Structure formats: C-alpha cells, structure tokens
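Narrative of activities, Objective 1.

The group set out to show that a structural description can be obtained from nothing but a protein's sequence at a throughput compatible with the screening campaign. Below is one input-output pair from the validation batch, recorded exactly as produced.
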Amino acid sequence: MINPVPLDVLAALDELGIEYSTMGEEAKALCPSPEHDDTTPSWSINLDSGMHHCFSCGYGGSFRRLVADVREDGGGSWSDALLWIQQRKVKDIAEGKVGRKAKPKKYAEITAADLWEFDEEYPIEELEFRGFDGDVAHGFNLLWDQKRDGWIIPFHNADDRLIGYQFKPRHGTDGTPLNHPPHLKKSGRIFDNLGIIDGDLLIIVESPLDVVRLYAMGYDNVVALFGASMDAEQAERIIANFSKVILFFDDDEAGRKGVSRALKLLKGTDVHVFAYAHPLRMGQYYVHTEVSGKDPGDLTKEEVAEGISRATPGFRTGFL
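Output recorded for this entry:
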C-alpha cells in the first residue's frame, strides 16, 4: 500500500491520545509534533486521506508519519507505524480500496520465567577479563548460561518489558552471539537506554559488554549498537538526543566500515572518532601499534581515557 490510512481515522486519533474537534471532513487539534509546544489548535487532519498539516510550525505529512511521531507505546519507526496501521481495518487512498484488517504476526511471548535456567554466578576469570565485577553485571541485569558457557544479555523495549535476550559466548571460545527469539530485530535497538543518559555527549560502541566495561571505568554515557553497522532508525534516535558523538568501534575491517557508515548517517551532528592512534595518522585502514588491543574490551582504563580525550573530528579521520 502506498498510503495506508485507518478506515476510522477518528478512532485512531483517540488511540494515539490526540484530543480533537471535528469540522466537516477535517479534525482540528493542538499540533502533535514533539517539536511544537502548541497552545492554540493550529493542526488539522483530513479524515479521508489522513494527510495533516500545522499552519503554525509547518509540521505535517502522511498518517504513517503521524503514527511514527506520536505513539507512546514503544513505536517510533516507519516500519512500526506501518504495522500499527495495518493491524486496523485500512483503506488505501492510492488504490481506492478498503483492505481487510491485517493479522498480526504471532511470536512467542518472553517473560522472566524464560530466564529461570540462567543465574548470576559469573566466572571470576570472565569478570576479570571484562573489567567489571558481579555487582556491576547484576546492575545491568546480565546473567550467565552455565550450559553454553556464556553471557545472557536481556533486551527490553521502551516500556521496559522483556522482549528477548542475546547469548554471547565466553571470551576466547568458539561461538556466535545468538538472539532469542530468533525473529528479534536489530533495527533501532540500542543498549543501554538513551533516556537515562544525562548530557549532550554520547559514546557509541559495538558490544553491550563494552557498555558495562566502560561504565565500570566511570563512563555512564555509553550505548551499544549490537554490531558495527548503524541503521537509520538508530541514527535518528541518536541525532534527536545528542549534540556530540564519539564512535568507539572495534579497530578491524568491520569496525572501520561501520565508522564510515555511521559518519554518513549522523551527518549534521558533531561526530568524533576514538583515537586508537595519533589523530594525524588515522586513516580508514590504519592499524595501531601503540595500544594493547583493537577494541574497547581489550584496552586499559588509561588507554580508553586517552583515546576519548583526543577523539578526532570525523572529517579529519579519512573515513569519509
């Protein structure tokens, strides 16, 4: 569908928490844009097409855009907004048809009971290698899988509801991180919660365990992307919340490609790159020799502090 719109737009506005008054084929309300503190109703929506517009700030667009911008139940992406509309009886203005109510996909619900077999008996040598203690691990709700010998990293949504977990094998052992349930999407997911970070500077790493390690070093403004490839949804959330970003990815081929992609997605933001080497010698294929490792989990506290302090503006790194 090119332009999916709920058959009952007023009912959808009620669900979205928008208080309105109707006037013929339109409804009027305070502007729902998060960027506009409207005091007099200056926003209207066409009840047939779903197109809307604020005559004060200029905010407007499709009904799908409205859903993506104002949902308060964990939605926020274009894909989530489309699914939200499709789960209601819809009409497609472009085709002039009314579609059937879409059947939501059925996935197994995850609850705390699904984590019963895991515990907080973390191996001492693994804690020592990761650079944090059991109390810090517990604070991030980390668990240990004794059978598979690895970490269990729970995932929560914006409402703090458990939606799944990732298994990450012990350092130095064979194995690949696995998500449960398998359908759990990466897109838009960030560990830890952006909402609890106080300040304008954000440090971005690849692995959730690096977030915990850096927290133990005194950095409470770190999030992980679950890999080196940033997506557009993650970039939108970061741009909306922070004015300066430091990319602290692994210094390998995947990490360098990830830095290049992130610099493009975060264009317009003050983005710096962690300095594994002297800034003047940084380049897309540079391999450092001065430090003890090639990713945040291998560096000492002093090396992390030095690399963050001399993080280099993106345009000077050779990654663009």
